[in-house]
Structure formats: structure tokens, C-alpha cells
Q: What sequence folds into this?
């Protein structure tokens, strides 16, 4: 369908609403609303209700979604999340609460949040949590602010460097510079682990900490994590765990037990909200005893059998937590996302959460082993919840890139995997099946990947010119993100 047919539906005089006459004269309206606030023209499309419904439903059907397609977007954990969690979070008892409501009237909500912190402590091994941060990157910032406060509090303010592996997510170095620290990059070795020799050469009395993702962005568990933790701690630094992708860890491995002093976790990946769902998100941060005094305020405290927010005004000296870094979010974070995650954790229980990770890891390894004859696998070892293969062979032999393969998958009815990340693998294709897919779906995806590898040999043009059946083909993605043109009749209209 042409773009015009999709968007140009407006016809003068057509209405989608029928409201009763207000009965007010122009004079009366002017008295009610100041002249300068009245709009004469409201350039909206003139369409009937039916036109409008069909337009938006049709647009929604052009989209890929977890509810319609397999969505193996590595690092984003686009799993299917049970609808019951959405329904629970939508209960009016939660959604109708006002954040300024008196604490005595929201005891249920406070209890839920308090319990959520305790559940996260149990799952990841920490002593305390804050639920305030609104995203993964926000959690990183919160954690680094606490690390900085910790060193300052000890009179050790010269520490200004944070060590990061070259496989790190881009938000890590960005968060480091946001708190005024300097990022020091350390390479990975041939097995995809942090290079311990290189680590030793950069650690010193200016090391504030190490930021690590484990499993890392290659989907690999760092085999020398305990050694790395010892090196950093001996030098007086702290360990930060980027737990954005916790889907491999549940019930199996707790980052606090590996030596990580502080960590953030994306509820909007692992816990019942998809990443990239357009928000909102939630990136709670867990800490051990060393960092607990620096947690954001207000904190939720239990007072006898009641729950309350701790006094939150640090400046006025009335906080129970005088060394806190202060507030990092209005009110208490994105509570709706937290309710969904709470429902997810409570309904699965300890056993169910462990099964999530076991199945996610099993699925990824099964796929990796089916695909490794057909695509270059740079690190051939057991993976965690995701793995990274490469279109290097296809590029060298047939001039077909990772981007082309990703686009060709759309023709076969699959959302493409993450591509060109992590940066240390050329022509990277990062695949995360998640636990929620059946063997049939996973096999169908692998079959499509293998067919595409064969097409690269026999008919590379069909791959290079994909996708073939979509309403739009190859877009300028950078331009679409930086200069979005969301007006239905084009920017020039305003
Ligand atoms: C997704 C992700 C982040 C960032 O999370 P946001 O909520 O998008 O800010 C950080 N680190 C890793 C490893 C991630 O996968």
C-alpha cells in the first residue's frame, strides 16, 4: 500500500465525535477562557471513528512484536511475559494511588515495595536495594554516585578511574564520565574473558572500581571473576555489576557472592516488561553493607508492623540516612513496572525463576550449536542466555553483511537479532532466544538462518536487497531516530 493511502485519510468536514452543543455563546466562552488561550484552528485529521480505528489497528499490525513474532534481539530479553502480570499492575488499587497519598492509606503498596526489595536481595545476594532508578543507565549512574560517595567518605578522594572491559555496553563509559570519573578500557582475551594480565597493569591507588557484565555482552561467563574481584578489592576499589541481563543468573549464581559490591538489574528485561517497549523501565540497585549508608532516600522502612518512607530531606538534616546520595527519582521510581515484576517473581517462586534461567541458557546453547557450522562463532564455548555469531564468512566470500542477513530474516517472519554489537566482534549477530520460545519456533528460526547462509552462496542479491515484503524497506535509521517526523502531514505544515 502506498504511503499516501495509509496516511492521507482526512476529508474536510468528516467527524469522529458527536458532542452535545455547549450552549455557551462566544461571549460566555471568552469570559470563561482568556482570549489568548483559545485556539481557532486545530489542524487535526478529519476522519470518522471507523477510519481512525482501522488506521491505527492496521499500523499496529505492520509492527513486529513479541505477541506476534519471535524476537531474538540480543541483550534485550524480549521474552513473552504472562498477561496476568499486566492485569495485576492495572488493578485500580495500584493505578489510582496518588504519590502524595498519606502513608497510612498506602500501607499495601509500601509493603509490596518493601517486600520487592527483600526478594531482590534474596535473588541477587545483596543486603539492601533501592527501587528508585528508572532504567539500567540510571541504575549505573546511581551506583557510581554511591561508589564516589564511599571513597569520599573514607577520605580517599583521589580515586578517579573506573576500569571497563572492551566488551562493555555503551552506557557504562557514559555513566562513568557523568559522575566525573575516567573510564579505563581493558581488553578481552581469546576466550572472551577480561584479560587479567592487562587488568593488573592498570589497577592502582587511583582505581575507584571495576564495572563488569557477567555473563558479558558476548553471552559468556567470565571464568576469572573471583581473581579479578580480589585484584580490585586489594587495590581499594569496588566492583560494580551491570546486571541489565540477569536472565541467565536466576537461582544459579548471585553477583554478590562473586564479589560485586553493587549492581543494577533491569526489571524491564528479565522481570516481565520487555526492553525497548517504549518505557517506562526500572533499574533497581542492590548494595552490600559497605555501600548501604549511601543508598538514595527516601528509603522504605518497617516501623513495628507499619511501613513508611524515611524522612527524605538530607539538606535539612532530618534524614535517618545522613550519608545518602539523596533522591534519584521523583517519588519512588516507576512503581507500575515494579508491581509487574513483583507479580512475576511471586507467581514463579524460587523454583520457577531457576527454570527460567536454565531454559534460557539451554535454548541459547542449542541454537548456537545448530548455527555454528553456518556462521563464524568467534568464541566456541558454552554460552549463557545469548550468544554472538558473525557474518564474517558471508561478507568475505559473498559480500553479504550482518545488516543484510538481519533484513532477510524479516522476509522469513522473524525479528532480526541485535547486530554490530558487541563492538569487538566484526559483523556481529547477537541472538537471545529467551526461555519462552518452543523448540519448534527455535528450529524454524535456525532453519531460516541456515537457508539465508545458503542464499548467500547461490543468490546473494536476494539477501542484499531484503526485506522484500514490508511496507517500507531500508530506512535511514539514524535520521529516523534523530529527526523524527511524526506529524501526519509532514513537518513543513508547521
Ligand atoms: C540494556 C543494557 C543496559 C542499559 O539499560 P537501559 O535500561 O536501556 O538504560 C546496560 N547494560 C547492559 C549490559 C544492557 O544490556
A:
Amino acid at each position: 500500500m502506498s504511503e499516501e493511502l495509509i496516511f492521507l485519510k482526512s476529508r474536510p468536514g468528516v467527524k469522529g465525535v458527536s458532542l452535545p452543543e455547549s450552549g455557551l455563546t462566544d461571549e460566555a466562552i471568552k469570559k470563561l477562557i482568556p482570549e489568548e488561550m483559545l485556539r481557532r484552528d486545530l489542524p487535526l485529521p478529519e476522519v470518522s471513528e471507523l477510519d481512525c480505528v482501522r488506521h491505527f489497528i492496521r499500523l499496529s499490525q505492520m509492527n513486529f512484536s513479541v505477541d506476534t513474532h519471535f524476537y531474538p534481539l540480543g541483550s534485550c530479553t524480549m521474552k513473552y511475559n504472562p498477561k496476568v502480570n499486566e492485569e495485576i499492575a492495572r488493578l485500580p488499587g495500584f493505578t489510582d494511588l496518588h504519590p502524595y497519598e498519606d502513608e497510612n492509606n498506602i500501607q499495601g503498596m509500601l509493603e509490596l515495595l518493601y517486600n520487592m526489595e527483600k526478594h531482590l536481595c534474596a535473588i541477587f545476594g545483596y543486603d539492601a536495594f533501592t527501587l528508585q532508578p528508572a532504567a539500567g543507565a540510571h541504575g549505573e549512574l546511581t551506583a557510581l554516585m554511591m561508589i564516589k560517595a564511599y571513597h569520599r567518605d573514607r577520605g580517599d578522594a583521589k580515586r578517579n578511574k573506573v576500569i571497563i572491559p572492551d566488551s562493555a555496553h555503551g552506557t557504562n563509559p557514559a555513566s562513568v564520565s557523568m559522575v566525573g570519573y575516567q573510564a579505563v578500557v581493558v581488553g578481552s582475551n581469546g576466550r572472551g574473558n577480561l584479560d587479567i594480565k592487562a587488568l593488573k597493569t592498570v589497577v592502582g591507588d587511583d582505581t575507584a572500581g571495576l564495572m563488569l557484565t557477567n555473563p558479558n555482552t558476548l553471552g559468556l561467563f567470565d571464568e576469572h571473576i573471583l581473581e579479578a574481584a580480589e585484584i580490585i578489592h586489594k587495590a581499594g576499589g569496588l566492583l560494580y555489576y551491570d546486571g541489565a541481563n540477569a536472565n541467565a543468573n536466576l537461582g544459579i549464581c548471585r553477583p554478590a557472592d562473586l564479589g560485586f559490591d553493587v549492581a543494577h538489574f533491569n526489571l524491564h528485561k528479565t522481570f516481565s516488561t520487555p526492553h525497548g517497549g517504549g518505557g517506562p523501565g526500572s533499574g533497581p540497585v542492590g548494595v552490600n553493607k559497605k555501600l548501604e549508608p549511601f543508598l538514595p532516600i527516601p528509603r522504605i522502612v518497617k516501623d513495628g508492623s507499619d511501613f513508611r518512607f524515611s524522612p527524605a530531606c538530607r539538606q535539612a538534616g532530618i534524614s535517618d540516612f545522613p550519608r545518602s546520595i539523596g533522591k534519584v527519582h521523583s517519588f519512588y521510581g516507576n512503581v507500575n513496572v515494579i508491581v509487574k515484576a513483583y507479580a512475576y517473581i511471586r507467581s514463579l517462586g524460587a523454583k520457577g525463576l531457576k527454570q527460567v534461567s536454565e531454559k534460557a541458557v539451554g535454548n541459547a546453547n542449542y541454537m548456537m550449536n545448530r548455527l555454528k557450522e553456518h556462521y563464524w562463532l568467534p568464541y566456541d564455548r558454552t554460552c549463557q542466555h545469548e550468544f554472538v555469531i558473525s557474518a564474517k564468512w558471508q561478507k568475505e566470500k559473498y559480500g553479504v553483511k550482518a545488516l543484510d542477513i538481519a533484513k532477510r530474516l524479516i522476509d522469513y517472519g522473524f525479528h532480526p537479532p541485535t547486530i554490530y554489537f558487541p563492538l569487538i566482534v566484526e559483523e556481529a549477530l547477537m541472538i537471545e532466544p529467551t526461555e519462552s520460545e518452543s523448540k519448534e519456533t527455535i528450529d524454524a528460526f535456525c532453519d531460516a538462518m541456515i537457508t539465508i547462509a545458503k542464499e548467500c552462496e547461490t543468490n546473494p542479491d536476494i539477501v542484499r536487497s531484503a526485506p522484500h515484503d514490508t511496507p517500507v524497506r531500508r530506512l535511514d535509521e539514524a535520521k529516523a531516530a534523530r529527526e523524527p517526523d511524526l506529524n501526519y502531514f509532514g513537518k513543513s505544515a508547521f
Q: What stands out?
A: The mean pLDDT is 93.
